[in-house]
Amino acid sequence: MNPRVSVLIPTFRRPHLLRRALASLQRQTLDSWQAVVIDDGAGEGLAEAESLRDPRIVARANQGKGQVDARNTALGLAQGQAVALLDDDDWIEDPQHLTKALNALAHRPALVYRGGWLVRLEGQQELSRTAFNQVASPEKLRKDNLILATGVVYPRAFHEQLGPFDPQMSDYWDWDWYLRVTGAGYPLHKLRGLGVMVAQHGANMSYGARVDERRANLASLCAKHGLEGVELKDHGSIAAAQ
Hints:
Elements: E1 5-11, H1 15-26, E2 33-39, H2 44-51, E3 57-61, H3 67-77, E4 82-85, E5 91-92, H4 97-105, E6 111-122, E7 125-132, E8 153-155, H5 157-162, H6 173-183, E9 188-200, H7 211-225, H8 235-241
Parallel strand pairs: 1-2, 1-4, 2-3, 6-9
Antiparallel strand pairs: 4-8, 5-9, 6-7
Helix pairs in contact: 1-2
């Protein structure tokens, strides 16, 4: 039986975090899912995924290089009618999240997203958490990325129409995708409650050391979509201002 949803999970040299992400899928009340784990490292993620011996988990090496190529590799293996996004260091807190997302999609094709918590971690210890509960719209997305990638669910047919993720967008692959989906006329659907957990730790809090690179990547996004007046931000700064 084909899964109802395929969850795309790129991973890079952090198998202990990947295990937590996969465990959150195994706690879902929806049983019919496929996790597509794409290893962009030296095989640590492959070994971790295979050690769980869950037939719903598919693990392969990246056919390209980097997180965007990894997600596109996963798309090529996706069998579900819907696609869900999950980073290897994040997890889904609400065990009914996938069920709720698919119920929303049963009414109309849309990009379903969810509010969540930005969780600051040091090792396995939680230091703090900040709510991220923005309401996005096509107009607001032209100023800020108000959607957490983890927890997003949408019909796989969107990619048949709009193509794969754009590797040229680098840091902003997700924002680019939301703009492409809404630009094609598809609606956004926000699920109630804070249902996903987005980890903030040393490995992904190095934005301050990459300001010039991020600014150049943002300029590429703005040029592609004709965005104006967009400031360099991240989800942490957006949450702090809400």
